Amino acid sequence: MSFDPTDEQRALCASAREFAESTLNAGLAERDRHGAGQEAGWRGLWQKCADFGLFGLCIPQEYGGAGHSTLTTIMALEAIGRGCADNGLTLGINGQIWAVLKPILSFGTDAQKRKYVPGLIDGRLVGAHGLTELETGSDAMSLKTTAEACDGGYVLNGTKAYIGMGPDCDLALVFASTTPDHGAWGVSAFLVEAGDAGFERGQPEEKMGLRSVPLGGLRLTDCWVPEDRRLGPVGAGMSIFQHTMEWERSFIFSSHVGAMARQLDECVAYSRNRETFGTPIGENQSVSNRLAEMRLRVETSRLLLYRAAWLKDMGRPSALEAAMAKLHISEAFAASSLDAVRIFGGRGYLSADGIERNLRDATGGLIYSGTSDIQRQIIARLLD
């Protein structure tokens, strides 16, 4: 098992980082300040990401993708995070790949793949993963949204909450109970289009971090969905969810690893140039220790990320590795972001340089895609 990049991977990563640095940071302060309403302009950046080929990195060529391996894909997404300071945008990119495209590719019919995958990778469609409800949270499969079978399809009723990209999605992967008395094994998945009667997208919620892309609720009121838009068999929702979460938890932080590396570069440069009492602050043990911890977090996070990708490429199970990657990287990014604020001192507490923004953005990672506490429970349960 070697993670040394090939010449092709190096070239792709260099191109991805240059694209991110030159294209994706424009207007970030405004998007962070005012949120991700339609006027924020994030959709234009989304289209540029699609034009560059980000959404199709690991998608088979027959559906318009590049057909790269999982490892090559996460290397490129890490490079995007290294060059792009917009953690919300990079989270949205990863969410579209791992939580929307992957389940459609894994469980969709050929007709569903050909209908939706090209639009999701070329920027015409923005996808959302519609699972969470206000009363469920970590108990995801106790959902209240129902799907009642009728002639030719299903009538969906229910409300979803905290859905990334939800307010502006064109397509939502919605989980609903088709057989409520079967519990988790009575849940099915459906592909709901923005134009479906009875499907309402909520307004973007104000939030602590990751403000540059929208998050909000979805409401389904007697929303009829044809049978050919059910994803997978009836009652397969739990299996689809578990499969998707393994991909999402493994790789949704791909770009955040790049962000941690960029963050470290900024802190090293500042600690060498900022002087107190006639010496650079990096010579103080308290500062140098923080820098050492930040470097350690970057390296261990990358190793966990790459190992999970290698396992996927080998076709091997990775539920344990997914939980460990999600837990470690999310907590590492939060810890390093707090260290960065401390290193920059008063300047780091101000919004002008974006140092504090990473801390606000990183906090969300302790919650979404399964809280840190849930990941610890999964890890403990999977111990040999």
**What fraction strand?**
5-15%
> Can you count the beta strands?
10
> Mean pLDDT across all residues, rounded?
94
Cα-based radius of gyration, to the nearest Å: 21 Å
Order of strands side by side in the largest beta sheet? 1-4-5-8
Shape label:
globular
Notes on the structure:
It is built from 13 helices and 10 strands. It has helices at 7-23, 28-34, 42-52, 70-83, 87-107, 110-122, 237-251, 254-273, 285-313, 319-344, 346-349, 355-364, 372-381, and strands at residues 127-130, 146-150, 153-164, 171-177, 187-193, 199-201, 215-226, 230-231, 275-276, 279-280. The longest helix has 29 residues, at 285-313. The radius of gyration is 21 Å and the shape is globular.
Sum up the structure in keywords.
single chain, 15% strand, 384 residues, 13 helices, 10 strands, 4-stranded mixed β-sheet, alpha+beta
